[in-house]
Design brief:
The structure holds two protein chains of two kinds. Chain A is of the alpha+beta class. Chain A has four helices and five strands; from the N terminus they run βαβαβαββα. Classes of the chains: A alpha+beta, B alpha+beta.
Chain lengths: 114, 451
């Protein structure tokens, strides 16, 4: 079972979190975890526990802000929202990621590399 | 900018840690319940759902630990935790602690005390501009040290080629020092110096307040008699009153105008011998009953010079010795000798002591005994350290079984795995803190192995 799952690449977790918050608006930690699992369609082996230290780090960097609020089922939960600085970071990271995946893609395409 | 933000966040996190952790607990609890509910709604039993949720989450404690490390400064906090641990262990063994602390305190204390003496007596140099070019010029006849008379000194100063400046200083015997009716000599024992007016210029020091001597102070000694005070003396006798500049200080019955305060750390041209005030030596005949400036036989001036750039000590010695020998020969011929016994000019030499040698008179005399003393106390410290090491060894043998036990207990009661065992290898109550301070390789090795 574990063999067909990929580990989360370093740096990509922050990118996924930022993208999630940018698209769906403020969310709590569990919601973010669910979303990442859903989007990856079970391919990604997300260790949910690692999400929280990552969220704290991103908060320290000023990419996201937090607020306590009520969840869909009326329970107190911590909500994360992307900040202006976070959007800038997302933009930069997206560009960087696309450039990187393009390069890797070129390497892996058979016969095209001269 | 980013680094700054993270540091601020971490500092805040370090202090609000308890609250933050509580919130994290709450957050994780929420996460866990949501996850369990999700799995239940998919048809799992409660137990299975909980197991699944735990599996997906990964290690809860690992996550918390990571979280904690992110929100403070783990290294600093570990250090304080280790320090607390060390103190606790010392408290548990008061006898051992006392012996160890006492022997170390004795060793370190004695070392500090002796080094203070060595520093003052041997190592300090004058607080003047490039003290390594400064030289004391001291004549000797038949190997016996002499001093120049003022007339000889002036002739040498004019004829020599080796020094950019030659200055003189001599002891001033203070009978009365009176400031506006107040006798200062009674308050503290004061000592003063006659100095040539180029003295401060040659040393290369500037006034703290007012001005130091200039050549005009020597030209009309009868009209403008002036004095410069030591900073510490000005502080203790005048309370740092800036208005003393321009006022009159009576010395041996002669009114002198206070023109300036020497810089704070300048106390005279010999390390360890403090002068409180300086007077131009041209005033000597007025302050003393006997005129020493015109007497060929009176020799009480010390001679200082600043070596010209590129001039070697040996060149200076040859230069000044030749002049001195010529002067002595001339005096012998004219019968106006400064010496009653008409010394052979060839037996006269002039020493040039450069740098610390010349200005730290206690240095040469005390060098050997002080070095021996320093060595002895260093050995004492070494013995103290050996003592403590021995004590630790003895304790280790006795406490092996107990330690094994407590280390395991520490892990069971939730201590950081690495740190619980990290403490073990040396079994020194303060060991890890010390190693944290000095960052020994052994320490980081252990961290890697256990993590």
């Amino acid at each position: 079972m574990a063999a067909d799952k990929s580990e989360v690449l370093p740096g990509s977790l922050a990118l996924m979190v930022l993208r999630t918050l940018a698209v769906l608006g403020p969310m709590h930690g569990w919601g973010i975890a669910r979303r990442i699992e859903q989007v990856s369609e079970g391919v990604l082996e997300l260790n949910q526990g690692t999400l929280y230290p990552a969220l704290l780090r991103m908060e320290q960097l000023g990419w996201i802000s937090t607020e306590w609020g009520l969840s869909e089922n009326n329970r107190r939960a911590k909500f994360y929202a992307i900040t202006k600085r976070g959007r800038k970071q997302l933009e930069a990271e997206t560009e960087n990621w696309e450039r990187m995946s393009m390069v890797i893609g070129r390497f892996l395409k058979p016969g095209k590399l001269v | 900018m980013n680094v700054f933000r993270v540091i601020v966040a971490r500092v805040v996190g370090m202090f609000g840690k308890g609250r933050l952790e509580q919130k994290l607990e709450h957050e994780l609890q929420f996460h866990f319940e949501q996850e369990v509910e999700l799995h239940v709604s998919r048809g799992l039993s409660i137990e299975d759902a909980q197991a699944e949720a735990r599996k997906r989450f990964g290690g809860v404690d690992r996550a918390k630990e990571l979280y904690r490390d992110t929100c403070g400064f783990p290294t600093i906090e570990n250090f304080f935790r280790d320090l607390r641990y060390a103190l606790r262990m010392l408290r548990n063994n008061p006898g051992f602690a006392m012996v160890a602390i006492l022997s170390l305190a004795l060793g370190i204390g004695i070392n500090a005390a002796v080094f203070t003496i060595v520093n003052a007596a041997l190592l300090r140099s004058l607080p003047v501009a490039s003290p390594d070019r400064l030289a004391r010029i001291s004549p000797s006849i038949n190997g016996r040290p002499q001093e120049f008379s003022y007339l000889v000194l002036r002739e040498i100063a004019e004829r020599q080629q080796s020094f950019s400046d030659v200055a003189a200083s001599g002891g001033l015997s203070l009978r009365h020092v009176i400031f506006e009716g107040r006798e200062l000599q009674q308050m503290e024992h004061l000592s003063g110096s006659y100095v040539s007016t180029n003295y401060f210029r040659m040393l290369g020091i500037q006034a703290h307040l007012g001005r130091l001597f200039s050549s005009t102070d020597a030209q009309r000694p009868d009209e403008s008699a002036v004095v410069v005070l030591r900073h510490g003396f000005w502080e203790s006798a005048f309370g740092k009153d800036q208005s003393v500049i321009g006022r009159i200080l009576m010395i041996n019955g002669v009114p002198l105008t206070i023109i300036g305060i020497a810089p704070r750390d300048f106390t005279g041209d010999q390390v360890g011998r403090v002068q409180d005030l300086w007077v131009p030596l041209e005033l000597q005949p007025r302050l003393d009953s006997r005129n020493l400036l015109e007497a060929r036989t009176a020799a009480f001036f010390g001679t200082l010079g600043r070596l010209k750039a590129g001039m070697l000590k040996s060149q200076a010695v040859a230069d000044v010795t030749a002049i001195y020998q010529q002067i002595l020969a001339g005096e012998n011929d004219a019968g106006t000798g400064t010496r009653l016994n008409r010394p052979n000019p060839a037996s006269a030499r002039v020493e040039v002591l450069v740098g610390m040698d010349g200005f730290n008179p206690t240095r040469q005399r005390n060098w050997k005994p002080l070095m021996i003393l320093m060595t002895v106390v260093a050995v004492v410290l070494l013995i103290a350290c050996l003592n403590v090491a021995n004590l630790l060894l003895a304790r280790k043998r006795g406490a092996r079984a107990r330690d094994q036990h407590t280390s395991r207990a520490r892990v069971e009661s939730g201590a950081h795995y690495a740190t619980a065992f990290d403490r073990k290898p040396f079994r020194c109550p303060t060991g890890r803190s010390c190693r944290s301070c000095f960052g020994s390789d052994r320490d980081s090795d252990l961290h890697h192995r256990h993590r």
